[in-house]
Amino acid sequence: MAAGYVPGGQAGVNGRPARGAGLAFGIVTCLFFAWGFITALNDPLVAAVKGIFTLSRLEAQLVAFAFFLAYGLISFPAAGLITRLRPMGAILCALAMMVAGCLTMLLAANVEIFPLVLVGLFILASGITILQVAANPLVAALGDPKLSHFRLTLSQTFNSFATFLAPILGAHLFLKGLEVQEGTVVTNLVRAKALGGIDTAYLMLCGLLVALAVFMFLCRGVVNAALPPPKADRVGPAGLLREALASRWALFGAFTMFLYVGAEVAIGTQMTAFLNDPAIWGRSDAAFSVPLLGQVMASDGILGVSVEEAGKAVGFYWGGAMVGRAIGSLLLSRFRAEQLLAIFASLAALACVYVACVGGVSSGFVALAIGLFNSIMFPVIFTLTLARSDAREEAISGLLCTAIVGGAFVPLLVGQVSEWTSYHAALAVPAVCYLLICFFALRAGQAARSGS
Q: Which of 252, 272, 362, 374 gets the most CB atoms within 10 Å of its CB?
């Protein structure tokens, strides 16, 4: 076993957690906050570039495509990197790459070139991909293997807190005065303000990532000490890929992860324009009467929800995931993970069907609630796949993180369907994804009972 991981998430000797595993777990969890914040900035960014560069709905989704394409191309090279540098060495390389991505975004905002925005996002996401491949199995390994679902869900809760904050800040910086409905003309002044907001956001991120890299460098000894020594049987990316593809459960889990990330990202990146649409909240003030939601959206006094106000509301989509993961962390310590996954996926599918078929003001609230049901899906799909596959963890992690490329392709499909129909009818696509996730959960439960 390479990179210091032990099968089944066991760290230490005889399945007991290694000394210092709790502190190491806390240190690694900081990374979940960082990549969650950066990823969720894509939601207001999609709406911003649609207005700034006068893009179609499908073209605006190229933001998600460029970002999540990195997972499909970088995950297995990342797994190979981890086998050579160990997790903390790979994490430091990832943070350096993310700084380079932020600097590219700063250049793109100043020269106003949309393809350069896509390049910057790809570089930034490549670094995040390395973090994901390294950190997810690392968290599962740092402690009692029976609580791996709990630990990864708890770390994802901090990730969700970041995704709650990022759309609110991004909407304030990117979307002030901007409109994205078809036929709207964006003035040079509004465009300049939006580009300045992008510049400010990624400059701040650059500084924070440098600080995080210094922190991780200083703490690398604590994390490395909590892991067993690396084994000698190092395997390159090609070998890891062959091993992962030979495992039926690794492939099943990867397909499910593709669907989950695709559905979640498609809903999130469309949410700003969806809520701003006249068929949802564009001509209603109902959202402003809801405690906390109304205060965060901060009405401008004009009837209906503007694109900036809608962008701030997207934080509650991701905030639902934060609340759900906090609750899910407790539920997963008491109930079977596959049962909870089946329930949450079924509820998400029902919510999507309601939005697609009913529309109107109520569907805006239902759409935001889907984030609550998304909450436990990533960590549970990840750990169920780890538990049922006989491939090494680096191989499984590489394949599952490759499957995050679903966030590149499903949003493109949803964007095209929304062009043909409407924003709310397009949620029929995520509904199908969630039903298939429910099928995975049921099969995982059957496999556990049969011992296969």
A: 272
Q: What is the CATH number of the domain that holds 136?
A: 1.20.1250.20
User: pTM for the full model?
Assistant: 0.82
Q: Write the CB contacts of 85 (distance below 8 Å, at least 6 apart in sequence).
A: 93
**CA dist., res. 281 & res. 138, Å (int):** 42
Taking only the tens place, the pLDDT of each residue in 272-311 is: 999 999 999 999 999 999 999 999 999 989 999 999 999 9
- CA–CA distance from 319 to each of 36, 167, 323, 369 (Å)? 12, 10, 6, 9
Least reliable range by pLDDT among 16-25, 154-163, 207-216, 389-398:
16-25
CA distances from 309 to 306, 316, 360, 435 (A): 5, 12, 17, 31
Burial 280-294 (b: 16+ CB within 10 A, else e): bbbeebebeeeeebb
* Domain assignment of residue 336, given as a range: 18-223+235-450
Would you say residue 12 lies in a domain?
A: no
Which is more confidently placed, 280 or 137?
A: 280
174 vs 190: CA distance, rounded Å: 10
Give domain status of residue 199, yes or no: yes
Residues 135, 86 contacting (CB under 8 angstroms): no
In sequence order, the 6+-apart residues with CB closer than 8 A to the CB of 363 are 280, 354, 355, 424
228 inside domain: no
Number of separate domains in the chain:
1
